[in-house]
Fold these 2 entries.
Entry 1:
Amino acid sequence: MRKKYYYFLLFLACLLPFIGEGKAAANEGGPLLEGVAEKIPIYDNSSGSLVKVGELVKGEVYQSLRPFGTNWYEITFGNSTGYVPSKDVKEVTTAELRNEKTIEVLSGESIKAQADLIVYDNSTGSLIPFAVISKDVQYPIISPYGNWYKIDMAGRIGFVHKNDTLFFGKPEEKPPASQGKVLEIVSDRAEVYDNRTGALVKVGELFKGQTFRLLRPFGENWWEISFGDAKGYIAKVKAKEAPGSSIIAENKYYAPLGDVVKITTDTTVVDNSTGSLLPFAKITSGTSYPILSVYGNWYRIDVAGKIGYIHKNNTVKLPNKIAATNAKKVPVLMYHHLLQKRENIFPNNNVILNVENFAEQMNYLSRYGYQTISLADMENYLKGRIKLKDKTVLITFDDGLKTNHFYALPILKQYGFQAGAFIITDRITPSPSHFIASRSQSLSEPEINEMKSHFQIGSHTAALHQLQGYTSYVLTKTEDEVLSDFVRSKQFVNTGYFCYPFGQYSEKTIGLLKKAGYTSAYTTKTGYAVPGTNTFEIPRFGVYPYTTMSDFAAIVSGSR
């Protein structure tokens, strides 16, 4: 309980500069530190607990980033930060920082320590130990160096021997599915054939003018597509490649649920992404077909990379299942406020992220083939109603700030991503305000309506995003007051999704949310969302100014 209280106070300390007025100076590096204890432990606190990740050495000098409270100094540790007890070091002004890191950059590769690794300085021509990386810690490298790896340790260049290390290369760059080739149907009906039996068996038709994902040309006369849990083949004369075309209602992240239905009569497949049921394909009677999910009286399916729906009346469910690769866990990213680096006069405020960092993170997701889901998809995933493909992420923004529209929306549009936005509904204004970077401004109704193209809106209360002392109003107000607030906010934005102010809630809070009609809620607890997770206690990963790209890559890849 004390630990949670400490981190909450730390969060408030970070928030106060943003709430108040004034200008904070950019961090240009803290004082030099000299080790005075025999062994100086280095701790990582990204998990919310202090985990020892290494040691510094007595008598050696290091670059700090800043004093951290009264008991700690923050240092560079790989591509992140580490913390050393202030009692184990002293500030020095005349000492020399040997072999200081200057222009070297991290390669994107890393090692994992198979035993405690000694870090050496060789700037004098002798190998002088000056730090230790703890066993099982993964650490980024600058480059291989013969039988050694060159690294950055607290602002100094160091070397660790390749023995007792496990090497990790750069993550494989995988373009998103939307960058693959597209096939356009040019005849009234393009028959789809299955040839698994050695003979061509008609299993369906695709309609003229529709676009689908092309797997590859197959010989001189055929195109190969995905069709159900197998491959389908279309005569080349019936379709053509369509460079630059997109696929309406493309299936970017749904994986087969495992259930299979048998088509009992020739069945039309419809697209409802526009709000109307538009026929685009047909499945032949007798064909077995896997489903993505149940959707009322319909089944959601994938036809050559395009999401479609077939009516249950034309099917019978089969006892057999199909295996499919799907996400075992999904990261939920938590953002708040975005500002351009040149605008951000509060660089040490953890709830303000530079737009440049956010853009780089979204570019990373796109470049490596990640896709984003909605708040509704997350709820269905946790309840087992759908399965999701690997490399799936949920992006969320708290507080309903104007920069969600001003900065985040254009970047999400650029990559075709979606996100969730949790709004403090009593702060919504009827018309947009002029953007002023130095102020905290809330969204307006027109801005929220425009955001709905790429955001699903949730509630962050109507007026209870406040503190009584250090405790959220959600926990201090009467049950009637809280319930009334929850209902009013839910009705205003027409949502079933909620986010706890300051991450504070209780079992009673959950009960009131259910009574108000909400179906899921998001916390500030760190962790991955997995099937079976309580939908009212969904964990998230905060993305902060100190979150490096390696940190970000680790989070979204599932290795954090």
Entry 2:
Amino acid sequence: MHWQDVSFFWVFVTGLSQAGSLFLVASGLTLIFGVTRVVNFSHATFFMLGLYLAYTLVELTQSAHDLLGYGAMVLLSAFICALLGSLCERIFLRPVYRHAQLYQLLSTFALVLILGDAIVFLWGPEDLLGPRMPGLSGAVEFNGVKFPSYSLFMMVLGPLVLVLLRIFLHHTRAGLLIRAATWDREMLGALGVNQRLLFTGVFALGCGLSGLGGALQLPVQPAHVGLDLSTIGDTFVVVVLGGLGSIEGAYLSAFLIEELRAFLAALGTVHVLGYSVVLSKLNLVCEFLLLALVLIWRPWGLLGRAAASEAHPSQSGQDTQQARFERVHLHHLTRKPGATAWRIGLCLVGAAALGLLLFSIWTWPESYVWVLLTECVIAALFAVSLQFMMQVGGIVSFGFALYIGLGAYVSAVCAQRFGLSLWGALIGVPFVGGALAWGLSMLYVRLSGIYLAMMSLAVAQIAWSIVYQWDDLSGGSNGISGIWPSAFWSTPSHYFALCLLLMSMSLGLIWQMRTSVWGLAVRACADSPIRAKSMGLPRNSLLSQLMMVSAAFASLSGVLWVYSKGVVSPDVLEMQKSLEVILMVLLGGIESMFGALLGAFSLTIIQDYLMIEVPYWRAALGLLMLMLIHFAPNGWMGLWLKVKIFMKARPS
């Protein structure tokens, strides 16, 4: 398709109609984060649930030919999502408001796993295509071009919801309380406002908007499992790009993203200086490119405020590690002995179950046990790399899988094209990962909190798009296969010994660096930037060095990973991989390198066992995550701290 053949008006209208649907989902997430400061990863799951509920309600009431009944079922689906969202907030999220933002994020990710398997249990894994909305199933013709009536309806609905939300936020008491909580919820609590009720109401409203957006997709796309994970990335981008807590910013960013997608798809292939450029391929990554560019220019988003990230430092996840540890220590000292004993008992039961699990694993075939232990060792190296960056520098990355993917793909491509051996990859690839991290750190050091995390996610998604579409180099969606070490190291026990040796050496180096003068200087810059600056410490340079070192070790784990699997695909760069390694760090305990080691071993073994033995293993993993967050928020090392405090508190 050439530029002169494109109908600019209809391309614009197409983008505008798609922006309305995206805005419905993003507006709810904007409200939730603005008030509760919770990065609700389960938000898109309510979008998917709304679509499934609308399909079922329309089928049960046989309202496929009744516009009024169809609309009523759509609204009822949104109401059910709002009700379920309020219940989830009261049961699962309210107890973790006092914890750091990462624990809140993992609580919502656990809900994704639980609700996802619940949807599979209730509706099955098959795609479900609903009927068109009565009265809007035709098309409108203008200047010889037909355009779907339903798309025009969605085009009008987006601005209408924006206007209604503005009226609600600016001209009602509840809306004024929501706006006040967005900027200073501590002062709002001091004035006597019931924050718990406010949080529950906002969470219900946000989930209802997400469910409404999903229900309105019934005539457009089928309900299918995995829709939430494919939607949440775009939703996060819209919220962060527009500015956290800004409804107008959410609509503006949704409009820009969908218009950009529409024009790229319409332009197709263009010819520049004799080269053919397929612009339509940028559809997978254009929103992340836009996010990266905007955050470089305005680190707080298009319509966000620079002070928004500083208004609540205690809730931003950027408080110092030492202060967080002292707060947890005091929390356990002041807990009632009976409650502490009950929690310790429950955690010890879980530890006993883990011991039985480990015992049962030794009954598996010996070759598989060696393979599983190799996976554990590689995951441990990957987790310790991230824990080093999080604990020393206070840097949280939602896209840390970029570096294990980089190590795997660089090793595979060089082995396939240039015959690079395992030893050559082990020596050279970590330098490539470190060099990439050094360049990216120039973008990261200017950001903090959720903006830094989302920038890292954007970069990882750009890398995923490159390897997914570059068939000639990366193999595209099929990946690269046939990457194996030499005959001696192909023996599972021998390769495990090699991985264990390299992991042990890496842990020794990391331990030395974190206790060195350099490590203490980096931690000082993270814990107290103002004091470190007054002492003359180069904060940006030190944090860049930390990112470079962490990326080098993560890339090393990527080399070991690809040679253990023999194949690499774009799945290694997905956001779920990054969330898994964060879970490993928190499962063991963020304050300890050995905690990350234990977390990686335990999560890898548990996940492998659940996938084999439990039909709905994702829900089981989600329940395990919730137990961890509620009963052992500092992981295995925190559990050991609980036991010591409990034993010291016992009367002699």
